[in-house]
Amino acid sequence: MHKYRHGILNIIDRQTSDIIKKIIFKRFAIDLSFLEDYIFRKRLTYSLNFLNITPLNNNEQITIITNNQLQIILHCVFPDEAELFRDTDMWNLLKIYILSKINRENKYKILFFNATAGEDLYSTLILLNELKIKDNFEITLISPSTYSIEKIKNGIISQPKNRTSISNFKTVIPKESITKYLGYINNTLSFDNNLLNNINFINC
């Protein structure tokens, strides 16, 4: 079960994680069977600890987990990429050879699927804005977690990768300052909310 022992968080057992998977599927019709077992149980353990949920000793105790708690669990267990302009070579290729050559008379669609962090969306919006083609794109973001959607809607930047994100930004957008797009709101580093207007957010 999940509890601290000598400062180490014990990973939740497979039986308990399978029960939680079934509850998530029953309540939200989301199938988590594709996630690698150990990684899922590790993320599940940390999410339960974050929620201050005591060790789960029986099925009855598991079923009292609320839908709001499950939304936070979904936010934690889905893989995400919390870094602006992750893989800068790819973003530079996208900027130079694809986006800069689009037909500006056409409309295009971009879909972000199973998103639990906003950095890929924010990176895309920065690039489209710099190339002055944002209005050519209809962007939809789908997330399994309403908790994730609220964080992304509010432009929340994942704190652990701040320094890497700034370095990546300068590699892809060398002539601009990242402060054009990022600022602090209530001591939280956030993305410019104005660029998040007209994004289609879907919980699915």
CATH superfamily name of the largest domain?
A: Vaccinia Virus protein VP39
Q: Which sequence of strands runs across the widest sheet?
A: 3-4-7
* CATH top level label of the largest domain: Alpha Beta
| Count of strand segments | 7
- List the total number of helices: 8
Strand content: 5-15%
Question: What would your notes on this structure say?
Answer:
The chain has two domains: about 5-75; about 90-204, 3-Layer(aba) Sandwich (Rossmann fold), CATH 3.40.50. It has eight helices and seven strands. The model is unreliable at about 1-5 (pLDDT under 50). The chain is an alpha/beta fold and about 200 residues long.
Descriptive terms for the model:
204 residues; alpha/beta; 43% helix; single chain; 7 strands; two-stranded antiparallel sheet; 14% strand; three-stranded parallel beta sheet; Rossmann fold; 8 helices
Compact summary:
By secondary structure, this protein is α/β, with parallel strands linked by helices. Helices cover about 45% and strands about 15% of the residues.
